[in-house]
Amino acid sequence: MRTDIAFSYAPGKVILIGEHAVVYGATAIAMPIDMGVRVAVSRLDEHSDLAGVGPMIRGVGPFFMGDTFLHQESSGPKVLTHALGYLAQAFGEQALDMAIVVDGSLAPGRGLGSSAALSVAIIRAIYRYIQQPLSDCLLASHASALETIFHGQPSGIDHAVVINGEPIAFRRKAQTAEYRTLKLSSELKLVVGFVGPHDGTKNAVKEFAERKKRQEKAYSRIISNLDDMAADMEEALLNGRLAFVGELMNIAQGYLNALSLSTLAIEHLCALARERGALGAKLTGAGGGGAVIALCDGCETEILSAFRAAGFESFITSVSAGRHHA
Ligand code: MEV
Q: Do 26 and 157 lie in a common domain?
């Protein structure tokens, strides 16, 4: 049983504390943002010469990646061919004439979880298309397989927060992970500034591992401090102590800089945000480019204007207490 066409949406994310450290078992805190990925799944035209060569992905809008086919030479990136290979293996014959169209407001390469959003949105749309029930657990296992293709060895935080649709405190444990939904007691407003594409999460995680090997003791101490700070941040978020959360973000940024994850542009935006009253500012995600987040308590429009005046594409995102992003 298949329907004609099925749609889905998944949000992107920001990490408030604990990126990279989370790969080594530290707790990290993440929240969904007001930008995301839309996916439509329908049937490749059975009368055209494309029938049966799928599945195929077409990127439109910010996902301008052309057409990628599993069983035909195509223009799209290799990693998408691998993702299609996974879908063909997971969904068998049903996948052979699936046409997956990707659009949305969240462009890739910004450190804002576009690949997790893409993975989750694709799987949700496919299950709607084949009219099968999908539990969060099954969704997480497919999303994890796709994220492994996109990212190498992801901690799982990106797709966990994207699926959960609310802020989470996440910890990886051997082959599994656990997370708690954080019921915020006050609204969080963040200005997100995009500082330019990064070199990919896969490379960032790999290079981090190499540096950590050379400086095992120093890196482990910082990771352990970030882990403690994540626990403090969780408590402060639950109690609405946003100034304290902001201070922890500033300290985390100092550590991320020490771990060689920051850049001149990131430091510039953090300084701009703090000068204009942000409670805290830091890079978010893999680093080396990507995005900066500034936590605001009334100064968000001023910071947004300052980021834009400095030439950085920016937007405001918020999570209110108990909000759902489904
Ligand atoms: C990427 O959004 C976050 C990293 O910690 C990688 C991961 O956790 O998989 C850099």
A: yes
Both 46 and 174 in a single domain? yes
Residue 118 Cα distances to 15, 74, 317, angstroms = 17, 20, 19
Ligand 1 environment, Cβ below 6 A: 15, 19-20, 22-23, 151, 154-155, 157-158, 201, 204-205, 285-286
Number of domains, the chain: 2
60-119 pLDDT, tens digit per residue, is: 877 767 788 887 776 667 889 999 999 999 999 889 889 999 999 898 888 899 999 999
pLDDT band with cut points at 50, 70 and 90 for residue 325: very low
Strand order in the sheet with 280-284: 280-284, 290-296, 188-196, 314-319
Residues 33 and 59 in one domain: yes
Coil, strand or helix: which one is 213?
helix
CA gap 265, 263 in Å, rounded: 5
Nearest protein Cα to ligand 1, atom 10: 286
Q: How far is CA 280 from the centre of its chain?
A: 20
Residue 326 has pLDDT above 60, yes or no: no
Burial class (CB in 10 A: 0-12, 13-18, 19+), 233: buried
**Burial of 214 by CB count in 10 Å (0-12 exposed, 13-18 middle, 19+ buried)?**
exposed
CA-to-CA separations, 124 to 28, 49, 97, in angstroms, rounded: 25, 27, 17
**Domain range for 307:** 188-319
Please write the tens of the pLDDT for every residue from 169-197: 999 987 788 999 999 988 899 999 999 87
- Tell me the sheet residues that pair with 13: 32
CA distance 66 to 72: 13
Nearest Cα residue to 168 out of 181, 159, 158, 183:
181
DSSP β-bridge partners for residue 156: none
Answer yes or no: pTM beyond 0.90: yes
Which residue owns the Cα nearest ligand 1 atom 1?
Answer: 285
